[in-house]
Amino acid sequence: MKNQIFSFFAVIALFLSFNACKPKNTMSAVGGDAAAKAYVAPGKYDEYYNFVSGGFSGQMSVYGLPSGRLLRVIPVFSVDPEKGYGYSEETKPMLNTSHCFVPWDDLHHTELSQTNGEINGKWVFANANNTPRVARVDLKTFRTAEIIELPNSAGNHSSPFGTENSEYIVAGTRFSVPADNANGDVPINTYKQNFKGHISFISIKPENGAMDIAFQIKTPGVNFDLARCGRAKSHGWFFFSCYNTEQANSLLEVNASQKDKDFVMAVNWKKAEEYLKAGKGEKVKTKYAHNVYNESTHTATSEMRNEVTVLDASVLKDICYFIPCPKSPHGCDVDPTGEYIVGSGKLAALIPVFSFDKIQKAIADKAFDGDYQGIPVIKYEAALYGEVKKPGLGPLHTEFDGKGNAYTSFFVSSEVVRWNIKDLKVVDRVPTFYSVGHLCVPGGNTRKPSPKYLIAYNKITKDRYLPTGPELAQSAQLYDISGDKMQLILDFPTIGEPHYAQAAPAEIIRNNGQLKLYKIDENKHQYAAKGEKESKVVREGNKVHVYMTSIRSHFSPDNIEGVRMGDEVYFHVTNLEQDWDVPHGFAVKGAANAELLIMPGETQTLKWVPDRVGMFPMYCTDFCSALHQEMQGYIRVSPAGSKTPLVYSLGAQSPAPQTSAPK
Ligand code: RUQ
Ligand code: CUA
Predict the structure, then answer these.
(1) How far, in Å, CA of 589 to CA of 569, rounded?
(2) How many degrees, rounded to 5, is the angle at CA 611 between CA 606 and CA 617?
(3) Rounded CA gap, 131 and 397, in Å?
(4) Nearest-angstrom CA–CA distance, 71 and 495
(5) How far apart are CA 223 and CA 244, in angstroms?
(6) Using CA atoms, how far apart are residues 184 and 566, in angstroms rounded to an integer?
(7) What residues are paired with 419 via a beta bridge?
(8) Which ligand has its closest atom nearest to the C-alpha of 223?
């Protein structure tokens, strides 16, 4: 034990000392022509969309590249008062889970949908790490369209990673835990007996992206970290990195760093599909939420599911194989040809590159080193193509340029290293000025990368920007990788901690049929008012429904009286505009949630429970015309039981006699 603790401290000391050696001459890092390379003139469009995870902010942000300009923040797993997401009655169900309404999560990875191994510009998927979920964002609207919760999982880190035709989005649990239908009330130190891993295969409907958990694979209890699909020749396979094969349940920084090698798990998902068809899956009771936003009713619904089909990898012997991989692997990346699988051991001094052909041969020859809890372990040498020697310290993630090069991030030595996949020689290295995490080459996870830029997303910030109190700006760095030497051309700050990001050529997304507005006559919202004539106020017991419209520059109605203490008021605001980019906002004094931001043709609802008698102004929050400041109104609140009649009006200097009969 003494020895182990010593080696543990030695490793930590190594980390700390490298961390501390910040590059000294940061000013000279950017050459004179760099600014021109990242410059996008005012009014000109960027070449790429970059979808960046927001980490603990729970959202995703969209940047233009090469400018690094922030174009949009897409709320996914966290409420967002800027857009009313999670606050409006229509979007609240999106954040429902089997636990309850969960307004926050930790979003680590983004994954663009693909056709034939190339980005198709339809959807971008994202994972919730804490309360395991996968979301689908529609790239016609840049909005979260669907969220599915993952049963039998905890810490959904190895997620969401897609197959070449988005047949599946795959998610591996970080924490192994007792399955949902097993007794979880067991001593924590019974990990080895009671804790299991689960990998979810979420099917994606090609027509509309609809998600469903097709099956899960049950594995021994380990931590799954990251994953990549096989592509081209290895299509039909999936590769996951796993650590804590020691199955420790405490002080993992020591106890899960014991073994020399952990595993990459190779999964034959085509085989799993066959077993599923043959009825080899077990239907298991559980509970998980499935939330869908309907674009014609402008309303999300949340449905609770109670069953999932599980294939047991220790019984169905030929769907999962373990490949030894040094040491606590993090990234597990597959090159554009599908032949090379790169494992990045955080504590390893080399990078192993596995060969898909050799893995297939090893399986055929049964070149196994026994098994790990019922899963065959392929001999390291039998799967290995070769090792990159002395590449750097703390390898994390690898991307590819499609020209035979791989790019690996090194957290400890703070650099990006370019190496040749065939001869495994280091070709170039460039400092990152931060402790770097993920990398992104546009299309770097596809058959056809677009190898002009590389972006490094940084973990531990150093002082590259003006200080902002105890917390410094999170950051990304952009490199030009088109030449022989990688060149840093831009730093840009990010929202939340960026983890993985993907980028796509702008044309693919710009021309995907972007939605400019919701057609008013296709609005099927239950409480839509499709013209001012339809605007009204209706009392149903203590619920008051305001069918309100907005158009430049007034609400209808804009005077409401007869609301009483004890009422719940629902403002259903329909934006009657039919021009691109003319949203209206809505806010009322004392509202305990957020504003609404309503797109042209859309209906959104704000629930408001008045807390006192008096006069409450409401107004439009989005500057919509020269008379935006005139876009306002009043609601009068009377005491409970008062006889003030319910009246509403527009343009009347005294209340119009449009009393609506109480129901
Ligand atoms: S990661 S810690 Cu993707 Cu390197 Cu989350
Ligand atoms: Cu509508 Cu400002």
Answers:
(1) 13
(2) 60
(3) 24
(4) 12
(5) 6
(6) 43
(7) 406, 426
(8) 1
Percentages (nearest 5) of helix, strand, coil residues in the chain = 10, 45, 45
The separation between CA 92 and the C-alpha centre of its own chain, rounded to angstroms, equals 18
Centre of ligand 1 from the C-alpha of residue 346, in Å: 12
Token readout for 458 is 């940084």
For 159, the token pair is 């997620």
Torsion of CA 19, 23, 26, 28, to 10 degrees: -150
Residue type, 181: N
**Residue 584 Cβ < 6 Å to ligand 2:** yes
Ligand 1 center from residue 499 Cα (angstroms): 6
| Distance (Å, whole) CA 383 – CA 400 | 21
Q: CB of 532 within 8 A of CB of 78?
A: no
Order of strands across the sheet that contains 329-334:
329-334, 340-345, 350-355, 384-389
Distance (Å, rounded) from C-alpha 460 to C-alpha 454?
Answer: 19
For the stretch 579-603, pLDDT in tens is: 999 999 999 999 999 999 999 999 9
Type of residue at 441: V
pLDDT per residue as tens digits for the range 555-577: 999 999 999 999 999 999 999 99
pLDDT tens digits, one per residue of 480-508: 999 999 999 999 999 999 999 999 999 99
DSSP for 507-543? Answer: HHHHTTT------GGG---TT---SGGG-EEEEETTE
Element (H, E) at 228: strand 223-229
Residues in Cβ contact with 205 at an 8 Å cutoff, skipping those fewer than 6 apart? 211, 212
Please give the distance, rounded to the nearest whole angstrom, from the Cα atom of residue 647 to the centre of ligand 1: 56
List the one residue out of 26, 34, 32 whose CA is nearest residue 67.
34
- CB of residue 500 inside a 6 A radius of ligand 1: yes
- Ligand with the closest atom to the CA of 558: 2
**What is the residue-wise DSSP string for 312-323?**
ETTTSTTSEEEE
Q: Is the CB of 631 under 6 A from ligand 2?
A: yes
Burial category of 427 from C-beta neighbours within 10 Å (exposed 0-12, middle 13-18, buried 19 and up): middle
Q: Locate 646 and state its tokens.
A: 């319910």
80: which DSSP letter?
B
Beta strands in 16-116 (DSSP E): 48-53, 59-65, 69-75, 107-115
pLDDT tens-place string over residues 302-335: 999 999 999 999 999 999 999 999 989 999 999 9
Closest-CA residue to 592 (of 240, 138, 79, 236) = 79
How many CA atoms within 13 Å lie on the side-chain side of 512?
A: 18
Residue spans of beta strands (DSSP E) within 41-195? 48-53, 59-65, 69-75, 107-115, 118-128, 133-138, 143-149, 158-162, 168-172
Comparing CA positions, the residue from 104, 446, 152, 409 lying closest to residue 284 is: 152
Q: How far apart, in whole angstroms, are the C-alpha atoms of residue 177 and residue 175?
A: 6
Alpha helices in 123-240 (DSSP H): 191-194
